[in-house]
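Progress against Task 2.4 (sequence-to-structure conversion) is shown through the following example record, which the project officer requested during the mid-term review.
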Amino acid sequence: MDNMIEDLKSGKLVPFLGMGVFKGVVNKNGQQLPFDSDSMVLSLNNGRAMSPRLMYEYSRAAMSLEQRKGRDFVVNMTNHIYTSSPYELPLVYQFLKKIQPPFVIDVNLDDSGCKIYEGMEHFMIVGVSRVMGGYDRFIVYEYLVESNSYIPMDKELLDDSKPILFKPLGSTVPQKNFIISDADFVDWLTEAMGGFAMPSFLKTYRQGKDYLYLGVDFSRDTYRMVANELTLTHKAGYVVETKSDLSKKEKKFISSHDLEIYNQELEAFIEALSCKMI
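Structure tokens generated for the chain above:
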């Protein structure tokens, strides 16, 4: 942990943020923000549980809702979860806002990642799925402080002159684009395996990076596949995980990616890391 702050600042260590960073975060209406697959299913389905088969992974539940109620329902419901009522910026984002790393991967669907670079020009890459007219499953934006807006830009102009926020599974801003249902993930992962999930610059830029996984659930096949595609050519890294009974698949992923486990609550880990900044 001694060199983590310096490695985060230099970009050698890349934060990889998952849904677990929202554990304990409640909006002004008193509703818990989704922090795992079960809570995401409940949020998408107005607080009602679904069948065990659909509860297994929220992408299944979203696919079922899409088939019954339409794509717009799922998109609007996802957007509603994160925009209907304000909530305090989760602790992990507050911490990263103090550091403003040159590169962050945020697989969450809200705009908390954008707030890491509040008041600072940066690039944002947002994942999309099931689109026509090309294979790319991303849109590249440039954030302009003067107008407080994200402007689409040519993917070939992306470089490391500004921090890069990568939101591969979508975002509420600047448009409602979400990879959330089974059909979304199948499409995105298919094109990701073909090399179309990120700009060419990132494929080179990510080489030799270490990753710090915060709030990422590796018990689900989907997230392991997503993480694997995004971190190809990785070196090593760390994962903050409280479970002591990891599955064989979780252990295999952690071992094959040469990850060191910090077995502690995420809040305690961030507080300990914050002390290194004093």
